[in-house]
Design brief:
CATH topology of the largest domain: Rossmann fold
Strand content: 5-15%
Bound molecules: 6-O-phosphono-beta-D-glucopyranose, magnesium ion
Helix content: 40-55%
Structural class: alpha/beta
CATH class of the largest domain: Alpha Beta
Radius of gyration: 17 Å
Number of helices: 9
Distance between the termini: 7 Å
Order of helices and strands: EHHHHHEHEHEHEEH
Largest sheet: 6 strands, parallel
Strand order of the largest sheet: 3-2-1-4-5-6
Shape: globular
């Protein structure tokens, strides 16, 4: 088999925290009277917190200082963490759970490659705190997707070159990052039809077909 490792994005791939990101950004945008909807939200997938805020503020007629921006990002994160606080093991879908269990029985190394600084907290909430062989996340990178940095870090952690790793992504920025790093990408959800991806998944368990 070509692949020796699988690197999963977290938000929108392993769990539906992408919806909580949307709700928290939406509450902030509404408070600031900035237009923001689900279509615009898709631009934030895979993008860091600070870069996401800048995309939202593009639609504002006000300018914000760096200090104000830092406070707004913190406000969003507080709201987001409140929503995450309600998550539990029941937030892991059967599709994801059963597939991860099947993959765990193979020789494949399994890693997370996420832009989120909340990755350890989320994995703990959904009962996957000790599941993965490696976790590369927003806490250990300088450049968020579409830079390949987080995936290169994950590959390094599991000691396989990009050519031997499959990246699973729901964001166009993430697919771009995978390709830039020399990885094959399996696209799901919002990015499913991304032409740069080698595989197009209708459901999480379709990953098993890419690994046959
Ligand atoms: C990514 C999400 O996984 O993490 C983005 O797709 C989010 O929407 C980014 O902005 C950063 O997340 P956090 O939890 O550090 O604010
Ligand atoms: Mg994602």
């Amino acid at each position: 088999m070509k692949y020796r490792g699988v690197i999963f994005d977290l938000d929108g791939v392993i769990c539906s925290t992408d919806e909580y990101h949307y709700l928290a950004w939406k509450a902030l945008a509404d408070r600031l009277n900035i237009p923001f909807d689900r279509e615009r939200n898709n631009l934030l997938r895979g993008v860091s917190r600070a870069a996401s805020l800048n995309i939202i503020l593009e639609k504002s007629d006000q300018t914000y200082t760096d200090e104000e921006k830092a406070a707004l990002a913190e406000e969003k994160n507080t709201l987001y963490r409140e929503l995450l606080g309600n998550m539990s093991t029941t937030d892991l879908s059967d599709d994801v759970k059963i597939t991860l269990e099947a993959l765990r029985k193979t020789d494949l190394k399994l890693a997370i490659g996420s832009s989120s600084k909340n990755t350890p907290f989320i994995l703990e909430r959904i009962g996957l705190g000790n599941f993965f062989d490696a976790i590369a996340d927003g806490n250990c990178i300088t450049h968020s997707k579409p830079s390949p940095e987080v995936f290169l870090k994950a590959a390094e952690m599991i000691s396989f070159p990009p050519q031997n790793c499959l990246v699973v992504e729901d964001a166009h920025a993430g697919v771009e990052a995978a390709i830039a790093g020399g990885f094959d990408c399996a696209a799901i959800g919002d990015a499913r039809d991304d032409e740069q991806a080698r595989w197009h998944l209708s459901r999480f368990s379709d990953i098993l077909k890419c690994l046959e």
